[in-house]
């Protein structure tokens, strides 16, 4: 009788405690879930694929502390048609890695083809329905009819703006589409039919300066986004000389500066992170730097990526030296196995 009375008292004490704990757990789960749904709808996605993306992002963020940073050499708009070019399949592999292993909840992108008007100010696209910018000339008419389904996110854009401001970077919002440094290569990386990205894309400008340290600091300012399951992709070219490209068109043999600069870039990017910023800045002082990049806007995105990488090592995933171009692709940080 005594044991029965004692157990009844214990049960009467524990029961309300358990009820409180279960109610708190349920409310927390609902709060997280409803917040995710609200974000999805605000991003103008269809419910079904977005719900899948939310579940995927939630499970991934629990096992991945930081998303990797990617540098892609994007080429011209013809890359979306050139399926036989070796870069096509390599971009597809990177895209598949991002959608199946990284599984970000959003992507923040920097392109060689968007420099802010001011050398000391950054612009962030806050548009939620991104048009495509056909900022290329002399291509067949069907190039200018291409589409790439995507959306932006005011919430993610505001998060980027706050991160930049808190790091002392002058920034303003703007309304803009995606330029050809992004959407043609994204059509290969994230084919809408076979490997859709299904998360918001927010583009951020470069500075209009050619200061490598300024762009490294730009990347460092938004590095914390990686801990929130937001992927950072920077788009440029490892070597990019259009003037010589026109002169050597049809001859894939790499020019001397293409080979030399491509390997120097690898050595600088893959050095220990404590030395990386200085080693990369020294690239711009090389005698062949202005041959490899007559202007530096296609090189500067990798400085942003390296800055965002923090203490994570850089790794060259693949390269192809072709005439006056290099197609090198890089990743900073590891991808955890599923």
Fold and architecture overview:
The protein contains 11 helices and 11 strands. It is of the alpha/beta class and 338 residues long. It has one domain: Protocatechuate 4,5-dioxygenase, Chain B, CATH 3.40.830. Strands 5-2-6-1-11-8 form a 6-stranded mixed β-sheet, with helices on both faces. A 3-stranded antiparallel β-sheet has the order 7-10-9. α1 crosses α2 and α6 packs across α11.
What is this structure's SSE topology?
Layout: H1 2-42, H2 47-63, E1 69-73, H3 86-102, E2 106-115, E3 121-125, H4 154-166, E4 170-174, H5 183-189, E5 201-206, H6 212-221, E6 230-236, E7 239-240, H7 242-247, H8 256-269, H9 273-283, H10 289-292, H11 300-309, E8 314-318, E9 321-322, E10 325-326, E11 329-332
Parallel strand pairs: 1-6, 2-5, 2-6, 3-4
Antiparallel strand pairs: 1-11, 7-10, 8-11, 9-10
Helix pairs in contact: 1-2, 3-5, 6-11, 8-9
What would you say about this model in short?
By secondary structure, the protein is of the alpha/beta class. Helices cover 44% and strands 16% of the residues. The N and C termini lie far apart (55 Å).
């Amino acid at each position: 009788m005594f044991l029965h009375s004692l157990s009844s008292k214990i049960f009467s004490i524990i029961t309300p405690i358990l009820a409180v704990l279960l109610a708190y757990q349920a409310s927390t789960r609902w709060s997280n879930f409803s917040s995710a749904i609200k974000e999805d709808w605000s991003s103008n996605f269809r419910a079904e694929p977005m719900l899948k993306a939310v579940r995927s992002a939630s499970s991934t963020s629990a096992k991945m502390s930081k998303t990797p940073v990617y540098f892609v050499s994007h080429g011209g708009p013809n890359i979306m048609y050139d399926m036989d070019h070796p870069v096509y399949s390599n971009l597809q592999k990177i895209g598949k890695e991002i959608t199946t292993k990284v599984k970000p909840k959003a992507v923040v992108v920097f392109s060689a083809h968007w420099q802010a008007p001011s050398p000391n100010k950054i612009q962030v696209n806050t548009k939620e329905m991104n048009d495509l910018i056909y900022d290329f000339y002399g291509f067949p008419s069907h190039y200018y009819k291409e589409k790439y389904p995507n959306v932006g996110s005011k919430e993610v854009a505001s998060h980027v703006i706050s991160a930049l401001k808190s790091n002392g970077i002058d920034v303003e919002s703007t309304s803009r589409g995606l330029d050809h440094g992004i959407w043609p290569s994204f059509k290969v990386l994230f084919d809408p039919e076979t490997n859709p990205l299904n998360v918001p894309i927010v583009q951020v400008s470069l500075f209009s300066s050619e200061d490598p340290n300024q762009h490294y600091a730009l990347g460092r300012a938004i590095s914390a986004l990686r801990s929130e399951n937001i992927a950072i992709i920077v788009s440029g070219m490892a070597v990019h000389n259009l003037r010589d490209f026109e002169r050597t068109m049809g001859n894939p043999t790499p020019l001397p500066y293409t080979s030399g600069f491509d390997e120097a870039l690898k050595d600088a990017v893959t050095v220990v992170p404590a030395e990386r910023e200085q080693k990369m800045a020294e690239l711009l002082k090389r005698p062949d730097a202005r041959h490899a990049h007559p202007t530096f806007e296609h090189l500067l995105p990798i400085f942003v990526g390296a800055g965002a990488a923090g203490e994570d090592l850089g790794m060259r995933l693949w390269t192809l030296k072709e005439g006056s171009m290099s197609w090198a692709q890089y990743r900073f940080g590891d991808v955890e196995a599923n």
